């Protein structure tokens, strides 16, 4: 699989040309690998849960939907968060490597601001983390999905956020990418510090395989809900 990536040398960051984003020249240590190493992965166990279906929900315009984004309260003690499953015309999923967690890849996600609708938050986070605006929302998970932070991660985030959350409660949205790969920019829209170093379109099995262990159960559930769209 082709991986689009860029090297982050120092701050402030500088935006490379599109040609560099597509086929960059990156100097890596001899022990580094540019391609994610995929372990043998067992077939996903699909437990289908009917998602909320949307009709042509464009990121940069007003929209209509068959159901509004669910605003029921998440479990107490969990940070409200959105997850984004972005697919292309080949039914592959966008995933990127985290700069702060070696060998860890994930789908975009981010916190929901106070008073912000989860759907609006998902559109914002997709733009902030990937630069992508050419996308349509196809579906939404019907309920909040949660994962707990491991103790060491919880302690780190407590210092970073100033709040002691048990974990995150997520609303997941399925987006269809309608633009070209050149639109992807891991510097995002410039409003937030970059989180990712490399990106690729990969299979659902690879998405789970490359995720950190404590996120794998939620990833499996998300991909089971959205499974009909990967056919």
TrEMBL record:
<keyword id="KW-0460">Magnesium</keyword>
<dbReference type="InterPro" id="IPR000086">
    <property type="entry name" value="NUDIX_hydrolase_dom"/>
</dbReference>
<dbReference type="GO" id="GO:0009507">
    <property type="term" value="C:chloroplast"/>
</dbReference>
<dbReference type="InterPro" id="IPR022927">
    <property type="entry name" value="RppH"/>
</dbReference>
<dbReference type="GO" id="GO:0004081">
    <property type="term" value="F:bis(5'-nucleosyl)-tetraphosphatase (asymmetrical) activity"/>
</dbReference>
<feature type="domain" description="Nudix hydrolase">
    <location>
        <begin position="77"/>
        <end position="224"/>
    </location>
</feature>
<protein>
    <submittedName>
        <fullName>Putative bis(5'-nucleosyl)-tetraphosphatase (Asymmetrical)</fullName>
        <ecNumber>3.6.1.17</ecNumber>
    </submittedName>
</protein>
<dbReference type="InterPro" id="IPR020084">
    <property type="entry name" value="NUDIX_hydrolase_CS"/>
</dbReference>
<dbReference type="GO" id="GO:0034432">
    <property type="term" value="F:bis(5'-adenosyl)-pentaphosphatase activity"/>
</dbReference>
<keyword id="KW-0464">Manganese</keyword>
<comment type="similarity">
    <text>Belongs to the Nudix hydrolase family.</text>
</comment>
<dbReference type="GO" id="GO:0006753">
    <property type="term" value="P:nucleoside phosphate metabolic process"/>
</dbReference>
<dbReference type="InterPro" id="IPR020476">
    <property type="entry name" value="Nudix_hydrolase"/>
</dbReference>
<dbReference type="GO" id="GO:0046872">
    <property type="term" value="F:metal ion binding"/>
</dbReference>
<dbReference type="Pfam" id="PF00293">
    <property type="entry name" value="NUDIX"/>
</dbReference>
<dbReference type="GO" id="GO:0019693">
    <property type="term" value="P:ribose phosphate metabolic process"/>
</dbReference>
<keyword id="KW-0378">Hydrolase</keyword>
<keyword id="KW-0479">Metal-binding</keyword>
<dbReference type="GO" id="GO:0008893">
    <property type="term" value="F:guanosine-3',5'-bis(diphosphate) 3'-diphosphatase activity"/>
</dbReference>
<dbReference type="InterPro" id="IPR015797">
    <property type="entry name" value="NUDIX_hydrolase-like_dom_sf"/>
</dbReference>
């Amino acid at each position: 699989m082709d991986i689009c990536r860029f090297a982050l040398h120092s701050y402030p960051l500088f935006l490379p040309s599109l040609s560099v984003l597509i086929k960059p020249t990156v100097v890596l240590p001899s022990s580094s690998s540019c391609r994610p190493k995929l372990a043998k992965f067992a077939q996903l166990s699909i437990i289908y849960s009917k998602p909320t279906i949307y009709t042509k929900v464009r990121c940069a315009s007003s929209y209509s939907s068959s159901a509004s984004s669910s605003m029921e309260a998440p479990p107490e003690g969990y940070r409200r968060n959105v997850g984004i499953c972005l697919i292309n015309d080949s039914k592959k999923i966008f995933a990127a490597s985290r700069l702060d967690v070696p060998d860890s890849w994930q789908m975009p996600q981010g916190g929901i601001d106070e008073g912000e609708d989860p759907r609006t938050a998902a559109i914002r986070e997709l733009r902030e983390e990937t630069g992508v605006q050419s996308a349509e929302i196809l579906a939404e998970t019907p309920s909040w999905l949660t994962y707990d932070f491991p103790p060491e991660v919880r302690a780190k985030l407590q210092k970073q956020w100033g709040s002691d959350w048990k974990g995150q409660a997520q609303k997941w949205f399925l987006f269809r990418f309608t633009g070209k790969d050149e639109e992807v920019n891991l510097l995002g829209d410039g409003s937030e510090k970059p989180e990712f170093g490399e990106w690729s379109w990969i299979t659902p099995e690879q998405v789970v395989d490359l995720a950190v262990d404590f996120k794998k159960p939620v990833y499996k559930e998300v991909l089971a809900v959205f499974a009909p769209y990967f056919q």
